[in-house]
Amino acid sequence: MARITASVYTSHVPAIGAAMDLGKAGDPYWQPLFKGFEHSRQWLKDNRPDVIFLVYNDHATAFSLDFIPTFAIGTAAEYQPADEGWGPRPVPKVVGHPELASHIAQSVIQQDFDLTIVNKMDVDHGLTVPLSLMCGQQDARTGAWPCPVIPFAVNVVQYPVPSGQRCFNLGRAIRRAVESFDEDLNVQIWGTGGMSHQLQGARAGLINKEWDNRFLDLLIENPAGLAKMPHIDYVREAGSEGIELVMWLIARGAMADVDGPAPLPKVNHRFYHVPASNTAVGHLILENAA
């Protein structure tokens, strides 16, 4: 039986990828942020999964206003880094896991969640920046990510976007799907995006440290209550792009404690830093009890 052993949460700010690609990770501005992921990189080496199920949002690369799936699962064998206007990031291609991805799609759709099946797409910074943060810089010519990755794209760009409750319930369905897969696989689920930030308008540059850290507290201790938070609270407190945090609820919903007597997951690492570009960066690693 496959199993989800841990969940990872991190922001996916595009400037973080640029800092790594341009050799600026050691600059005084960026050094405190990357220091917060040193523990995480060692943890990933020590707890290398067989597959990563990575929840992110596309930024008008694979999808556009012409076609906006609410939930889209990648079932391809591989994915190339996207050209977001300045060329693709110099990172390795992403190798998929078509067998597990197809099984999850089948199971989750049978649990009454409508997924878009994507057999070909490029993946943008929403997916590659979390991989770089957790794995370190990888060379596109000689490097490789440590394991296959299943991309799972969520629309948090164009309203209407899914509710936190819908995302939380989807995470539960994904866990059931993984656990019904016959092969013995160690799966991690990653939720990305956020934290508080707004990129335009009168509140451009908004960061709400107190709200962000309260969100992290609730994500750990009371995710079911957090799932009930309405969209307007995210926008009011965390800015227009803060709505990306509903994707973290997919990863949290996939943890063992939300449907039974299992204890709260162990907090292996927690980190918060501002600013990175004009965004607050949050990061958590939660481990299921053995």
Q: How would you summarize this macromolecular structure in one to three sentences?
A:
The protein has 290 residues and is an alpha/beta fold.
Global mean pLDDT: 96
Largest sheet: 8 strands, mixed
Helix/strand-derived category reads: alpha/beta
* Count of alpha/pi helices: 10
Could you say what the CATH topology is called? Protocatechuate 4,5-dioxygenase, Chain B
Q: How far apart are the termini?
A: 15 Å
Number of strands: 10
> In percent terms, what proportion of residues is strand?
15-25%
**What's the shape?**
globular
Main CATH class: Alpha Beta
Walk across the major sheet and give the strand order: 6-3-7-2-8-1-10-9
Domain Extradiol ring-cleavage dioxygenase class III enzyme subunit B: 8-281
Keywords: Dioxygenase, Oxidoreductase
Protein name: Protocatechuate 4,5-dioxygenase
EC number: 1.13.11.8
Provide key terms for this protein.
Protocatechuate 4,5-dioxygenase, Chain B; 10 helices; globular; two-stranded antiparallel sheet; eight-stranded mixed sheet; alpha/beta
Structural account:
The chain has 290 residues and is of the alpha/beta class. The chain has a single domain, classed as Protocatechuate 4,5-dioxygenase, Chain B. It has helices at residues 14-21, 31-35, 38-46, 98-110, 125-135, 164-179, 209-221, 223-226, 231-238, 246-253, and strands at residues 3-10, 51-56, 71-74, 78-79, 94-95, 116-118, 149-154, 186-192, 266-276, 279-287. The strands form two sheets. An eight-stranded mixed β-sheet has the order 6-3-7-2-8-1-10-9, with helices on both faces. Strand 9 (266-276) and strand 10 form a beta hairpin. Helix 1 packs across helix 5 (125-135) and helix 6 packs parallel to helix 10 (246-253). The longest helix is centred in the middle third of the chain and has 16 residues, at 164-179. The model has no long low-confidence stretch (mean pLDDT 96).
